Amino acid sequence: MLTRRQSLLGSSALSAISALWGALLGLVAVPVMIQSLGFAAYGIYGLAFTIVGFGSYLDFGLGWTTSRFVAEADVRRDAALLSATVRAALLYQVAVGLLFVAVVMPSADGIARFLLPSQEQYEATMTAVIRVAAFSFLLSSLAGVLISALRGTRHFAMATAASVTGLTLSVGGATTVAGLGYGVVSAAFAQSTGAGVALAVALWACREPVFRSRRVSVRPQLRAMLSFSIWNYLNGLGQLLSSEVDKVVVGRFASAAYLPFYLVPYGLSQRLNAVTGPALTAIYPIATVGQYERTKFLAQYFSAARAVHVLTASGALAMFFWGPRFLAAWIGPEMAEHGAFFLRVFTVGFWVLSVGSFDGGCIEGWNHPRATAAIVFISLAAAVPLALVLFPIIGAAHAVALAVATWQVSTGLGQILYWQRLARYPIAQLRRFALPIAEMALIALGASLVMEDLVRARLASMAILPAMALVLAAYGVMRSFPVDERRALLKRLISRVDFKNAATTTSSA
Predict the structure, then answer these.
(1) pTM for the whole structure
(2) Residues 433-437: what's their mean pLDDT?
(3) CA dihedral 27, 33, 34, 37 (to 10 degrees)
């Protein structure tokens, strides 16, 4: 592997740039694909990739577990253990990926008939897209294992390069092909090429432990990883109902043509992970090591957590108050009319879940995966009955959305409170997060009311959302961080240089 490693701040900045780039790609891609393919074909496209997403749950939680075990082997400078960990995860993913493809390929037509009752005109297209998406899943899942290994050894720059390259080619290729009028099946083929390139880049970066290290038995390490990852897997099964099953239910009971009104707001609100997602991928391996240096790690945690809370809240508040206007300008008035409810509901859900997941990464890094799994299932026990009760009253899509948001809020709050108890930090720290966010909410509400009648132009309506988020973020940072700390963080962020204690050179990696 490469020798340059990133600190927590530097790695978070790299991942945030990656997430921002993904958001910008989506901003361009979604309206082009909807306009080129139509609502029904775009719904088929999203539904097919959702179906193959179920295959990711065959890994028994090895995704995050790979990062954790690689981090432990790396900090111990054990080249043989590091190689065994990477190879075990990769071989296991090859096996389950090929098994999933072997099952999906012949059953794709049956899946299409089940998902699209009374929509025979779309069955052949759906069948073809599912088969292409299954192949794309195999490539992306293998790339994901290797990218997790890079993150575990704190080679975040190379991990970011692999993921960004794959994402750009996938989204850009699919959008270009759809825009040229080649149809939804060709767009799915184009997306799979990006996954293949990401795999090639990640495999090159991990060539040392995969190919060149001395041969070691992977079976004992795989058993150890699976015994730990089962709790991550149970956590993932709970998330399955809110990230995959919900779309299948909406697509089947509300039609493929209606699904984009659910998918687009869901995807837009999910961009709130642009801050928390990168911070989570950075904090997880660092928390694993930090459990042995508790005081030092908690100092890092509080600095990062304040930024996560404030920056996530800035995006969420801007999206909640101005999001419907953004949808109308971005996609069209029909999307705003049907999607505003989903956007606001998911914004609240992803907001709380995002900041809670940051604490959840710390919980698992400190060897308490059972706790996060229990929180997920307790929250699920509250959400599923709610969906069943509301289903006949307000319809499938709205009932599912409220249930998903209930699960997200319950899970996020549960992780925040459990981490506070585990880390034993003063509860007053949470109040320090809450006050600036309350002030930001009042600012966002006032700004939205003032600009609602003043702004009419389409581009201006779109620009207000990120502008409002940036203003709120600046205010929140000034309220949450003293001047000296702001200057120190800014200096570190700009330099993005590894500190001597964080930068190491190992031939074993």
Answers:
(1) 0.74
(2) 86
(3) 180
